[in-house]
Amino acid sequence: MSAELDPVIHPVHRLQICALLANADEMEFALLRDELGVSDSVLSKQLKYLDDAGYLTIRKVPSTGRPRSWYSLSKDGQCAFQKHLDALRIIAALAT
Amino acid sequence: MSAELDPVIHPVHRLQICALLANADEMEFALLRDELGVSDSVLSKQLKYLDDAGYLTIRKVPSTGRPRSWYSLSKDGQCAFQKHLDALRIIAALAT
DNA sequence: TTCATAACTTTCCGTTATGGAAAGTTAAAT
DNA sequence: ATTTAACTTTCCATAACGGAAAGTTATGAA
Q: What's the CATH number where B39 sits?
C-alpha cells in the first residue's frame, strides 16, 4: 500500500490550509486563522512549515503598520496537494 | 471550517487500516502489517487504538498455536470512516 | 507435563509533533 | 521616538510515533 500521502500536507491543520488555499487563490493571515480556529502562533508555525517545503507563495502588500501578507499555494504546492488528493482517493477508494 | 475530521482515523496508519478493512470485510494481522509495511508493535498499537475507540470487531479463530484474529470495522467504525471520508470530500472539495 | 511455536502485546526509550501563552520583531504612520 | 498591526519565536508541557526487545498466551508435540 502507501499511495504516497504527503507528510507535509497530511496533518490536519496543514491539510485544511492547503484545501482553503487551493480553493481560494489567495488568503490573508487573519482569515486563515479564523477558518482554522487556531491561535496566531499555531498558524504561523504551520505556514512556515509549508513555506519551508516550498509549497507557498507569499505576497506582501503595504498597509497600515507592517505590510500584510497574502498566502497562496506555489506551483509545487498545488502539485503536491493534487498528488495528495490522488493518494487519498486511491487509499480511500473515493470516486473522482 | 473543520468538517469533522476524525482524529482517531486521520493519522496515516490508522487511515490505511480503516481503508483496507472498509474494502475487505476481514483481514488478518500479518496481511495488514505487510500492507502497511510496519512492525508488529506498531500495527498492534494502532489496532488497539482503533479497538479502544470501538471501531473494530475482532473474530478469534482457533488455529495452530494461539488463535488467529481477523479484524474488521465495527458498525461504529464503518460509520466513523464514512463520516471521515465525507469530511475529506468537503475539505478537499473532492467530487463524490 | 514440560517444551516449542505462532501470534500478538507491552515496555523501554528516544525523536518529533502540537499547542497555547507570552515575549519579540518589524514597518509605517504619528 | 512611539504606537500599532501583523506576524514570529521562544518557552514549556503534553501527546504522538517508531522500532527493538521482552513478555503473553494457547495449542500441539515430545
A: 1.10.10.10
